[in-house]
Amino acid sequence: MTDPNVEAWTRANADYTDARAEEKWAQDEITWGIWDVPESRLGVLPDVADRDVVELGCGTAYFSAWLKKRGARRVVGVDPTPAQLETARRCNERFGLGLEFIEAFAEDVPLPDASFDFVHSEYGASIWADPKRWIPEAARLLRPGGDLVFLRNSTLAILCSPDEDLPTTEALQRPQFGMYRFQWPGEGVEYHLPHGEWIRLLRGNGFEIVDLIEIQAPAHAETHERYDYVTAEWGRKWPAEEIWSARKGA
Amino acid sequence: MQEPEYVPLNRASWTLANAEYTDRAAREEWGREEIVWGHWHLPERELGVLPDVSGKDVVELGCGTAYFGAWLKRAGARRVVGVDLTPAQLDTARRMDEEFGLGIELIEANAEDVPLPDESFDLVFSEYGASIWCDPALWIKEAARLLRPEGELVFMRGSTLRILCLPDEGPATDRLLIPQKGLYRIDWQEGDMAGSDFHPPTAEMFAILRENGFELLDFRELYAPDDAVDHEYYAQPTAEWARKWPAEEIWRLRLRSS
């Protein structure tokens, strides 16, 4: 039996991410999320020059490519979906960036302890893996003082997402109490924790919270052609996405 | 520092609240044996969010009738100073302090500009005090100044979600009625009373704290227990709302040593 997330991302790769991968790899500027907010505006990434990076849930690995272009020494992309890794390998050959790829779930990564300086996830493990398992994995993979940065949907967007008939509304559709594991109709399994639980989970795994950015859609933003579960109008009033930055204790 | 224009308005609204409710509620609160949090009286023994206060010097910013300061003193704090800008609230606090004989010190001042020396406390505390009635850009800076290195800051405020769901009148709804974009200071009017409170969203509040040298240790979002009933005086949030969504939150931070 195929894992529901691997199934969903095999489909998504055929429908969309494969066709978009080369354009994303070619992009010179690092941007964040569905509104493509430039890193130059947010300034949330640590310096990656000469550092060893692992991306958990890399998909077609365009973010890994951007980090390699920024000077990272070694970049390893981990993803459980073979179809996305095939796309990533094709792009890697074409762009000649020398990324490494590993087929694995972020909850159980076949890489040694304390072998990376930076663990990254952008709509990867950050929503598709169980945080109670992948955050300890991130802590294990990092060297002391290493950085963890991840982007996820905001809790508010999840609270306002109807079970069916997207997009996100202005009404709270579900309680926050107890929110954790989600399976939307016809989709994979996602995990969404509220802020308080993220903070406790990160602290409990030896991380210091360095930054939290709630992303606002820019004035000129338009609703994303594919990821239309939240409109640009909603995203201008409320944060649809957020970035966490944490550092493992020395 | 000249008093910001919202300070006399907030003082007037707390003078009224003291006459209507907090003065008569003070004795029961001071007499309470255990430390409890917020509208639903969640026991500290279950939350475990406070640091050990024994032998510590504590200042409460926006202490009101100072019942929380009284609890911290009973929990072993060496010195407890309550700071508040409303004389009527401090009168109640002084009367209670005499009755209970706890030796709390009380100072009339705005928490944005506290007449106490640098690095003179181990814990700065606020429960619906400075935490919502004062400008965080000012009072967080004061908290950092008042603390000794590695001192802690603990405060409670309403949740951002509750603010976003507030109508012009009445308790929080299940709809987003206020944009989060630009959320910081909220000017309100109720009948002939007016005032301001402050509510930067989580990320902005965190940024202010970090810029003032604080490391985040804990952040709790509090829900109403199953058996909670609506508060007798504070109209919101309703227990029904607060069972589904967090109406209140507690922040715990530590001042970095360098």
Features:
heterodimer; A: about 250 residues; alpha/beta; Rossmann fold; seven-stranded mixed β-sheet; two-stranded antiparallel ribbon; globular; B: about 260 residues; 9 helices
Written description of the protein model:
The complex is a heterodimer of chains A (250) and B (258). In chain A, helix 1 packs parallel to helix 3 and helix 1 (4-26) runs parallel beside helix 4. The longest helix of chain A is centred in the N-terminal third of the chain and has 23 residues, at 4-26. In chain A, strands 5-4-3-6-7-11-10 form a 7-stranded mixed sheet, with helices on both faces. Chain A has a two-stranded antiparallel sheet with strand order 1-2. Chain A has 9 helices and 11 strands. Chain A is globular, with a radius of gyration of 17 Å. With 250 residues, chain A is α/β, with parallel strands linked by helices. Chain A has a single domain, classed as Vaccinia Virus protein VP39 (Rossmann fold, 3-Layer(aba) Sandwich). Chain B has a single domain (6-255), classed as Vaccinia Virus protein VP39 (Rossmann fold, 3-Layer(aba) Sandwich), CATH 3.40.50.150. In chain B, helix 1 runs parallel beside helix 4. Chain B has 9 helices and 11 strands. In chain B, helix 4 (87-100) links the parallel strand 4 and strand 5. By secondary structure, chain B is of the alpha/beta class. Chain B has a 7-stranded mixed sheet, sandwiched between helices. In chain B, strands 1-2 form a two-stranded antiparallel sheet. A two-stranded antiparallel sheet of chain B has the order 8-9. Classes of the chains: A alpha/beta (250), B alpha/beta (258).
Which fold name is given in CATH as the topology of chain A? Rossmann fold
Measured by residues with Cβ under 8 Å of the partner chain's Cβ, the largest interface is:
A-B, 28 and 29 residues
End-to-end Cα distance of chain B, whole Å, is 27 Å
Number of helices of chain B: 9
Largest beta-sheet details of chain B: 7 strands, mixed
Rg from alpha-carbon coordinates of chain B: 17 Å
What's the architecture of chain B in CATH terms? Answer: 3-Layer(aba) Sandwich
Helix count of chain A, per DSSP?
A: 9
Query: For the record, what is the CATH homologous superfamily label of chain B?
Result: Vaccinia Virus protein VP39
Catalogue the unreliable spans of chain A. none
CATH domain fold name of chain B: Rossmann fold
* Portion in beta strands of chain A: 15-25%
Domain count of chain A: the total is: 1
Give the averaged pLDDT of chain B, no decimals.
95
* Portion of residues within helices of chain B: 25-40%
SSE pattern of chain A, N- to C-terminal: HEEHEHEHEEHHEHEEHEHE
Give the total of beta strands of chain B: 11
**Looking at the structure, what is the overall shape of chain B?**
globular
CA-based shape of chain A: globular
